[in-house]
Protein backbone atom coordinates (compact mmCIF):
# COMPACT_ATOMS: atom_id res chain seq x y z
CA UNK A 1 0.00 0.00 0.00
CA UNK A 2 1.20 3.49 -0.78
CA UNK A 3 1.89 5.36 2.43
CA UNK A 4 2.85 8.79 1.22
CA UNK A 5 2.53 10.06 -2.33
CA UNK A 6 3.77 13.48 -3.42
CA UNK A 7 3.34 14.78 -6.97
CA UNK A 8 4.55 17.94 -8.66
CA UNK A 9 5.19 19.70 -5.35
CA UNK A 10 6.25 23.35 -5.50
CA UNK A 11 6.94 25.56 -2.50
CA UNK A 12 8.42 29.00 -1.98
CA UNK A 13 9.86 31.18 0.73
CA UNK A 14 9.00 34.68 -0.43
CA UNK A 15 10.14 34.82 -4.05
CA UNK A 16 12.59 31.99 -3.60
CA UNK A 17 11.19 28.78 -5.13
CA UNK A 18 12.65 26.02 -2.96
CA UNK A 19 10.74 22.96 -4.22
CA UNK A 20 10.37 22.95 -7.98
CA UNK A 21 8.17 20.00 -8.90
CA UNK A 22 9.07 17.24 -6.49
CA UNK A 23 7.67 13.70 -6.78
CA UNK A 24 8.10 11.08 -4.06
CA UNK A 25 6.37 7.82 -3.11
CA UNK A 26 7.04 6.07 0.20
CA UNK A 27 5.39 2.69 0.79
CA UNK A 28 3.52 2.04 4.02
CA UNK A 29 5.89 0.81 6.72
CA UNK A 30 9.05 1.95 4.88
CA UNK A 31 11.83 4.05 6.35
CA UNK A 32 12.78 6.64 3.77
CA UNK A 33 15.59 9.11 3.87
CA UNK A 34 15.71 12.43 2.03
CA UNK A 35 19.34 13.28 1.44
CA UNK A 36 20.72 16.56 0.17
CA UNK A 37 23.07 19.42 1.04
CA UNK A 38 22.19 22.12 3.52
CA UNK A 39 19.67 24.59 2.07
CA UNK A 40 18.35 22.25 -0.65
CA UNK A 41 14.83 22.33 0.80
CA UNK A 42 14.65 19.23 3.00
CA UNK A 43 13.10 20.99 6.00
CA UNK A 44 10.69 22.81 3.72
CA UNK A 45 9.58 19.45 2.30
CA UNK A 46 8.94 18.10 5.82
CA UNK A 47 7.07 21.25 6.80
CA UNK A 48 4.81 20.94 3.74
CA UNK A 49 4.11 17.28 4.53
CA UNK A 50 3.43 18.10 8.18
CA UNK A 51 1.06 20.93 7.25
CA UNK A 52 3.16 23.83 8.55
CA UNK A 53 3.89 25.33 5.12
CA UNK A 54 1.50 25.68 2.20
CA UNK A 55 2.78 24.57 -1.21
CA UNK A 56 2.12 26.69 -4.31
CA UNK A 57 1.34 23.64 -6.46
CA UNK A 58 1.22 19.86 -6.37
CA UNK A 59 -0.45 17.27 -4.18
CA UNK A 60 0.31 15.38 -0.97
CA UNK A 61 -1.61 12.17 -0.17
CA UNK A 62 -1.30 9.91 2.86
CA UNK A 63 -2.81 6.41 2.57
CA UNK A 64 -5.04 7.61 -0.25
CA UNK A 65 -6.28 10.66 1.70
CA UNK A 66 -5.53 14.03 0.09
CA UNK A 67 -3.81 16.34 2.57
CA UNK A 68 -2.96 19.14 0.18
CA UNK A 69 -3.69 20.03 -3.42
CA UNK A 70 -5.19 22.98 -5.32
CA UNK A 71 -8.51 22.63 -3.47
CA UNK A 72 -7.61 20.85 -0.23
CA UNK A 73 -5.64 21.87 2.84
CA UNK A 74 -5.88 19.60 5.88
CA UNK A 75 -4.56 21.42 8.96
CA UNK A 76 -1.52 19.97 10.71
CA UNK A 77 -3.42 18.72 13.76
CA UNK A 78 -5.73 16.59 11.60
CA UNK A 79 -3.03 14.92 9.49
CA UNK A 80 -2.02 12.08 11.88
CA UNK A 81 1.62 12.92 11.20
CA UNK A 82 4.28 12.98 13.91
CA UNK A 83 7.24 15.35 13.80
CA UNK A 84 10.53 14.96 15.59
CA UNK A 85 12.71 18.08 15.37
CA UNK A 86 16.51 18.26 15.51
CA UNK A 87 16.79 19.18 19.18
CA UNK A 88 13.97 17.02 20.52
CA UNK A 89 12.41 20.10 22.15
CA UNK A 90 11.18 18.33 25.29
CA UNK A 91 9.13 20.24 27.86
CA UNK A 92 11.69 20.83 30.63
CA UNK A 93 9.17 21.14 33.46
CA UNK A 94 7.39 17.87 32.66
CA UNK A 95 8.62 14.39 33.62
CA UNK A 96 9.63 11.95 30.90
CA UNK A 97 6.25 10.21 31.28
CA UNK A 98 4.56 13.62 31.12
CA UNK A 99 6.42 14.48 27.93
CA UNK A 100 5.54 11.19 26.25
CA UNK A 101 1.91 11.28 27.35
CA UNK A 102 1.38 14.95 26.49
CA UNK A 103 -1.62 15.22 24.20
CA UNK A 104 -2.79 11.62 24.69
CA UNK A 105 -6.33 11.02 25.99
CA UNK A 106 -6.17 10.65 29.80
CA UNK A 107 -7.65 7.13 29.88
CA UNK A 108 -5.08 5.68 27.50
CA UNK A 109 -2.12 7.64 28.83
CA UNK A 110 -0.62 5.44 31.53
CA UNK A 111 -0.63 2.21 29.50
CA UNK A 112 0.62 3.82 26.31
CA UNK A 113 3.43 5.69 28.10
CA UNK A 114 4.65 2.46 29.73
CA UNK A 115 4.58 0.71 26.35
CA UNK A 116 6.61 3.49 24.71
CA UNK A 117 9.17 3.72 27.53
CA UNK A 118 9.73 0.00 27.01
CA UNK A 119 9.95 0.42 23.21
CA UNK A 120 12.68 3.07 23.42
CA UNK A 121 14.58 1.27 26.20
CA UNK A 122 13.86 3.76 28.99
CA UNK A 123 11.57 1.67 31.21
CA UNK A 124 11.81 2.87 34.80
CA UNK A 125 12.90 6.42 33.93
CA UNK A 126 9.40 7.87 33.49
CA UNK A 127 9.54 10.01 36.64
CA UNK A 128 12.81 11.76 35.78
CA UNK A 129 13.02 15.16 34.17
CA UNK A 130 14.69 15.82 30.80
CA UNK A 131 17.79 17.46 32.33
CA UNK A 132 18.47 14.22 34.24
CA UNK A 133 18.94 12.29 30.98
CA UNK A 134 21.81 12.18 28.48
CA UNK A 135 21.43 13.76 25.02
CA UNK A 136 20.83 10.37 23.42
CA UNK A 137 18.22 9.43 26.03
CA UNK A 138 16.47 12.75 25.48
CA UNK A 139 16.24 12.03 21.76
CA UNK A 140 14.71 8.64 22.56
CA UNK A 141 12.10 10.40 24.67
CA UNK A 142 11.39 12.75 21.76
CA UNK A 143 10.96 9.69 19.53
CA UNK A 144 8.60 8.06 22.05
CA UNK A 145 6.58 11.29 22.24
CA UNK A 146 6.34 11.48 18.44
CA UNK A 147 5.21 7.82 18.26
CA UNK A 148 2.74 8.08 21.17
CA UNK A 149 -0.39 9.01 19.19
CA UNK A 150 0.45 6.23 16.64
CA UNK A 151 0.86 8.61 13.69
CA UNK A 152 0.42 7.27 10.16
CA UNK A 153 3.69 8.91 9.24
CA UNK A 154 6.63 10.12 11.30
CA UNK A 155 8.90 12.92 10.08
CA UNK A 156 12.40 13.20 11.53
CA UNK A 157 14.37 16.37 10.82
CA UNK A 158 18.09 15.59 11.27
CA UNK A 159 17.26 14.03 14.65
CA UNK A 160 20.83 12.98 15.47
CA UNK A 161 22.67 16.12 14.32
CA UNK A 162 23.39 17.39 17.85
CA UNK A 163 24.91 14.12 19.08
CA UNK A 164 28.52 12.98 18.92
CA UNK A 165 29.52 10.49 16.21
CA UNK A 166 29.59 7.25 18.23
CA UNK A 167 26.30 7.94 19.97
CA UNK A 168 24.74 8.97 16.67
CA UNK A 169 25.55 5.65 14.99
CA UNK A 170 24.16 3.65 17.94
CA UNK A 171 21.05 5.75 18.30
CA UNK A 172 20.13 5.72 14.63
CA UNK A 173 20.37 1.91 14.59
CA UNK A 174 18.12 1.82 17.67
CA UNK A 175 15.68 4.31 16.19
CA UNK A 176 15.47 2.35 12.94
CA UNK A 177 14.79 -0.85 14.94
CA UNK A 178 12.18 0.94 17.08
CA UNK A 179 10.38 2.31 14.03
CA UNK A 180 10.36 -1.14 12.42
CA UNK A 181 9.01 -2.68 15.65
CA UNK A 182 6.27 -0.04 15.70
CA UNK A 183 5.50 -0.68 11.99
CA UNK A 184 5.82 3.06 11.41
CA UNK A 185 6.28 4.78 8.06
CA UNK A 186 8.99 7.39 8.52
CA UNK A 187 10.87 10.00 6.55
CA UNK A 188 14.19 11.20 7.88
CA UNK A 189 15.97 14.15 6.35
CA UNK A 190 19.73 14.47 6.60
CA UNK A 191 22.78 15.78 4.79
CA UNK A 192 24.82 12.87 6.20
CA UNK A 193 25.35 10.08 3.66
CA UNK A 194 26.30 7.49 6.31
CA UNK A 195 23.08 8.20 8.13
CA UNK A 196 21.08 7.74 4.93
CA UNK A 197 22.90 4.54 3.91
CA UNK A 198 22.57 2.89 7.32
CA UNK A 199 19.05 4.01 8.23
CA UNK A 200 16.84 3.78 5.20
CA UNK A 201 15.01 1.25 3.00
CA UNK A 202 14.71 4.00 0.41
CA UNK A 203 16.87 7.05 -0.21
CA UNK A 204 15.69 10.07 -2.20
CA UNK A 205 18.44 12.49 -3.24
CA UNK A 206 17.22 16.10 -3.54
CA UNK A 207 18.81 18.48 -6.00
CA UNK A 208 17.51 21.79 -7.30
CA UNK A 209 14.24 21.41 -5.44
CA UNK A 210 13.32 18.04 -6.89
CA UNK A 211 14.34 14.41 -6.54
CA UNK A 212 17.44 13.53 -8.58
CA UNK A 213 17.12 9.78 -7.89
CA UNK A 214 15.38 7.37 -5.52
CA UNK A 215 16.41 3.82 -4.76
CA UNK A 216 17.63 1.44 -2.10
CA UNK A 217 20.90 2.38 -0.37
CA UNK A 218 22.66 -0.32 -2.39
CA UNK A 219 21.27 0.97 -5.71
CA UNK A 220 22.20 4.56 -5.01
CA UNK A 221 25.67 3.72 -3.75
CA UNK A 222 26.63 1.31 -6.53
CA UNK A 223 24.39 2.43 -9.42
CA UNK A 224 23.88 6.21 -9.13
CA UNK A 225 22.21 7.97 -12.06
CA UNK A 226 24.93 10.60 -12.49
CA UNK A 227 28.26 11.78 -11.05
CA UNK A 228 26.61 14.17 -8.62
CA UNK A 229 24.42 11.50 -7.06
CA UNK A 230 27.52 9.27 -6.95
CA UNK A 231 29.37 11.91 -4.90
CA UNK A 232 26.37 12.61 -2.69
CA UNK A 233 26.45 9.00 -1.47
CA UNK A 234 30.19 8.76 -0.82
CA UNK A 235 33.64 9.13 -2.28
CA UNK A 236 33.78 8.34 -5.97
CA UNK A 237 36.51 7.63 -8.53
CA UNK A 238 35.25 8.54 -12.00
CA UNK A 239 37.30 6.95 -14.73
CA UNK A 240 37.00 7.11 -18.54
CA UNK A 241 35.85 3.91 -20.21
CA UNK A 242 34.94 2.57 -23.62
CA UNK A 243 31.81 0.52 -23.15
CA UNK A 244 31.68 -2.63 -25.21
CA UNK A 245 28.54 -4.55 -24.24
CA UNK A 246 29.00 -6.10 -20.83
CA UNK A 247 32.59 -4.86 -20.49
CA UNK A 248 34.12 -1.44 -19.96
CA UNK A 249 37.70 -0.91 -21.14
CA UNK A 250 39.51 1.32 -18.67
CA UNK A 251 43.08 2.17 -17.70
CA UNK A 252 42.74 -0.64 -15.16
CA UNK A 253 41.95 -3.08 -17.96
CA UNK A 254 38.59 -4.58 -18.89
CA UNK A 255 36.00 -4.49 -16.10
CA UNK A 256 32.52 -6.01 -16.01
CA UNK A 257 29.76 -3.36 -16.14
CA UNK A 258 26.63 -3.09 -14.00
CA UNK A 259 24.64 -2.68 -17.23
CA UNK A 260 25.54 -3.26 -20.87
CA UNK A 261 26.37 -0.19 -22.93
CA UNK A 262 28.34 1.17 -25.87
CA UNK A 263 30.45 4.25 -26.56
CA UNK A 264 32.53 6.51 -24.34
CA UNK A 265 31.50 6.99 -20.74
CA UNK A 266 32.67 7.76 -17.26
CA UNK A 267 32.44 4.81 -14.92
CA UNK A 268 32.25 4.83 -11.14
CA UNK A 269 34.70 2.85 -9.04
CA UNK A 270 34.15 3.24 -5.29
CA UNK A 271 37.34 3.48 -3.19
CA UNK A 272 36.73 -0.06 -1.91
CA UNK A 273 37.05 -1.32 -5.50
CA UNK A 274 40.67 -0.11 -5.85
CA UNK A 275 43.60 -1.94 -4.28
CA UNK A 276 47.36 -1.64 -4.17
CA UNK A 277 48.63 -4.55 -6.23
CA UNK A 278 52.09 -5.07 -7.74
CA UNK A 279 50.45 -6.52 -10.84
CA UNK A 280 48.01 -3.58 -11.19
CA UNK A 281 47.76 -1.87 -14.58
CA UNK A 282 47.97 1.71 -13.24
CA UNK A 283 51.11 3.33 -11.85
CA UNK A 284 50.48 5.89 -9.09
CA UNK A 285 52.14 7.71 -6.22
CA UNK A 286 50.83 7.81 -2.64
CA UNK A 287 49.87 11.38 -1.75
CA UNK A 288 48.71 10.78 1.82
CA UNK A 289 46.85 8.22 3.88
CA UNK A 290 45.20 7.89 7.22
CA UNK A 291 44.19 4.96 9.38
CA UNK A 292 40.50 4.83 10.28
CA UNK A 293 40.42 1.77 12.53
CA UNK A 294 38.62 -0.53 10.09
CA UNK A 295 40.71 0.48 7.05
CA UNK A 296 43.14 3.00 5.57
CA UNK A 297 41.98 5.81 3.32
CA UNK A 298 44.65 6.42 0.70
CA UNK A 299 44.86 9.36 -1.72
CA UNK A 300 46.87 8.62 -4.84
CA UNK A 301 48.09 10.52 -7.83
CA UNK A 302 47.93 8.26 -10.89
CA UNK A 303 50.07 8.58 -13.99
CA UNK A 304 48.62 11.38 -16.16
CA UNK A 305 46.29 10.75 -19.08
CA UNK A 306 44.69 7.40 -19.66
CA UNK A 307 41.32 8.87 -18.71
CA UNK A 308 42.10 8.90 -14.99
CA UNK A 309 41.33 11.81 -12.66
CA UNK A 310 44.22 13.69 -10.99
CA UNK A 311 43.49 12.03 -7.71
CA UNK A 312 42.20 8.55 -6.87
CA UNK A 313 40.94 7.34 -3.49
CA UNK A 314 41.37 3.76 -2.28
CA UNK A 315 40.29 2.13 0.98
CA UNK A 316 42.73 -0.62 1.88
CA UNK A 317 42.88 -3.18 4.69
CA UNK A 318 46.65 -3.03 5.04
CA UNK A 319 48.75 0.08 5.63
CA UNK A 320 50.03 1.67 2.40
CA UNK A 321 53.68 2.72 1.99
CA UNK A 322 54.55 6.30 3.02
CA UNK A 323 53.62 9.42 1.07
CA UNK A 324 55.65 9.76 -2.13
CA UNK A 325 56.04 5.99 -2.67
CA UNK A 326 55.34 4.61 -6.14
CA UNK A 327 52.68 1.91 -6.16
CA UNK A 328 50.58 0.06 -8.68
CA UNK A 329 46.81 -0.02 -8.58
CA UNK A 330 44.26 -2.58 -9.69
CA UNK A 331 40.48 -2.35 -9.76
CA UNK A 332 37.70 -4.84 -9.22
CA UNK A 333 34.40 -4.56 -11.09
CA UNK A 334 31.61 -4.08 -11.58
CA UNK A 335 32.08 -0.58 -12.94
CA UNK A 336 29.00 1.57 -13.30
CA UNK A 337 28.57 4.07 -16.15
CA UNK A 338 27.43 7.44 -14.79
CA UNK A 339 27.18 9.47 -17.98
CA UNK A 340 29.00 10.26 -21.19
CA UNK A 341 32.73 10.68 -20.96
CA UNK A 342 32.82 13.60 -23.36
CA UNK A 343 34.51 13.61 -26.75
CA UNK A 344 38.02 13.46 -25.33
CA UNK A 345 37.69 10.59 -22.93
CA UNK A 346 37.91 7.68 -25.33
CA UNK A 347 40.65 9.17 -27.45
CA UNK A 348 42.74 9.98 -24.36
CA UNK A 349 42.33 6.37 -23.36
CA UNK A 350 43.35 5.15 -26.82
CA UNK A 351 46.29 7.59 -27.09
CA UNK A 352 47.68 6.36 -23.83
CA UNK A 353 47.50 2.78 -25.05
CA UNK A 354 45.35 1.56 -22.18
CA UNK A 355 45.25 -2.18 -21.93
CA UNK A 356 42.12 -3.31 -23.66
CA UNK A 357 40.50 -6.64 -23.32
N1 LIG B 1 11.31 31.01 6.71
C1 LIG B 1 12.07 31.22 5.64
N2 LIG B 1 12.07 32.41 4.99
C2 LIG B 1 12.83 32.61 3.90
N3 LIG B 1 13.64 31.69 3.37
C3 LIG B 1 13.69 30.49 3.96
C4 LIG B 1 12.92 30.18 5.13
N4 LIG B 1 13.19 28.90 5.49
C5 LIG B 1 14.07 28.44 4.60
N5 LIG B 1 14.38 29.37 3.68
C6 LIG B 1 15.32 29.19 2.53
O1 LIG B 1 14.84 28.13 1.73
C7 LIG B 1 15.90 27.27 1.31
C8 LIG B 1 15.64 25.86 1.79
O2 LIG B 1 15.66 25.81 3.20
P1 LIG B 1 15.43 24.47 4.01
O3 LIG B 1 15.53 24.79 5.46
O4 LIG B 1 14.21 23.80 3.54
O5 LIG B 1 16.70 23.61 3.55
P2 LIG B 1 17.37 22.33 4.22
O6 LIG B 1 17.78 21.46 3.10
O7 LIG B 1 16.46 21.75 5.24
O8 LIG B 1 18.63 22.95 4.92
P3 LIG B 1 19.32 22.54 6.30
O9 LIG B 1 19.87 21.18 6.11
O10 LIG B 1 20.38 23.60 6.45
O11 LIG B 1 18.25 22.63 7.35
C9 LIG B 1 17.17 27.89 1.86
O12 LIG B 1 17.73 28.66 0.84
C10 LIG B 1 16.68 28.77 2.99
O13 LIG B 1 17.54 29.87 3.15
TrEMBL record:
Residues 345-357 have a biased composition (Low complexity). It holds the Pfam family ABC_tran. InterPro entries: AAA+_ATPase, ABC_SmlMolc_Importer, ABC_transporter-like_ATP-bd, ABC_transporter-like_CS, P-loop_NTPase. Its EC number is 7.6.2.9. One of its GO terms (molecular function) is ATP binding. It comes from the Bacteria. It is an enzyme of class 7 (translocase). Residues 338-357 are annotated as: Disordered. This is ABC-type quaternary amine transporter. Keywords: ATP-binding, Cell inner membrane, Cell membrane, Membrane, Nucleotide-binding, Translocase, Transport. Residues 4-233 form the ABC transporter domain. It comes from Kitasatospora viridis.
